[in-house]
Design goal:
The strands form four sheets. A four-stranded antiparallel β-sheet has the order 4-7-1-8. The longest helix is centred in the N-terminal third of the chain and has 13 residues. It is 19% helix and 29% strand. The radius of gyration is 22 Å and the shape is globular. The protein is an alpha+beta fold.
């Protein structure tokens, strides 16, 4: 295993999520997509086995562990802004799609009829909600992460498998487009991998918080008392 610095060069502004974006989370997604086919009912046991055996060293302490892989952090000037967006649905097209059975809407069943006014197209809530809103964006052309890991496997997962194309939230809207990913040896990673969430305060500049410290980070059942480095996004 080698101390590494991984740089994500972005072509578009990204949208921050509510919690740090961990390097092992991105790599775990790559490994899961590469080794397990997409299924309606995924094999959770197989997924957890993959996520617990990624090409990173582990730090083990007090019957717990984390990967030696930091969260992503800015490595270029940041400019904060916002983006307005709209989404409009045609009530007539929605009604016609419901009648055809293309979408299941309200109480209407394909081939059945309803009393007059029993079905109403709701454009104020639900899947056909019309939206006029905005979200915050962050312009930062480089995000970096540090880890102790297998350089060749990480380069293959991030640059060759093609499962990661964007970083952050609202990726379908084009935010956080990855232009390139570079991986280089860097002894800074010997300590900088600690810039992440952890069960223990291994270094200064951490704050206590309720967080997840292992994949999958979105799993709220894994939230516990822990610590997060102030440099983590």
């Amino acid at each position: 295993m080698t101390p590494l610095k991984i740089t994500f060069n972005l072509a578009t502004p990204f949208v921050k999520s509510g919690y740090p974006i961990h390097l092992d989370s991105l790599v775990g997604f790559c490994f899961q997509r590469h080794y397990l086919p997409l299924e309606d009912e995924p094999d959770e046991a197989a997924i957890m086995t993959i996520l617990a055996d990624l090409p990173f060293e582990k730090h083990e302490q007090d019957e717990d562990w984390v990967f030696k892989a930091s969260a992503l952090m800015p490595d270029a000037p940041m400019v904060h802004g916002s983006r307005f967006f709209t989404r409009r649905y045609s009530e007539m097209e929605t009604a016609q799609a419901a009648v055809r059975g293309d979408i299941v809407y309200g109480k209407l069943k394909p081939g059945k009829t309803l009393a007059p006014h029993a079905l109403k197209i709701d454009t104020k809530r639900g899947s056909q909600k019309n939206i006029l809103a905005y979200h915050p964006t962050t312009e930062c052309r480089r995000l970096v992460a540090y880890c102790i890991g297998d350089k060749e496997l990480l380069d293959e997962a991030l640059n060759e498998w093609g499962h990661i194309s964007h970083i952050g939230a609202k990726r379908r809207m084009g935010h956080g487009l990855i232009q390139s990913i570079s991986i280089e040896d860097d002894d800074t990673a010997l300590t900088a991998w600690q810039k992440r969430t952890m069960p223990w305060p291994l270094c200064d500049d951490v704050v206590p918080m309720r967080c997840t410290t292992q994949n999958p980070y979105f799993d709220k059942t894994k939230v516990k008392d822990g610590y997060c480095h102030i440099d983590a996004i």
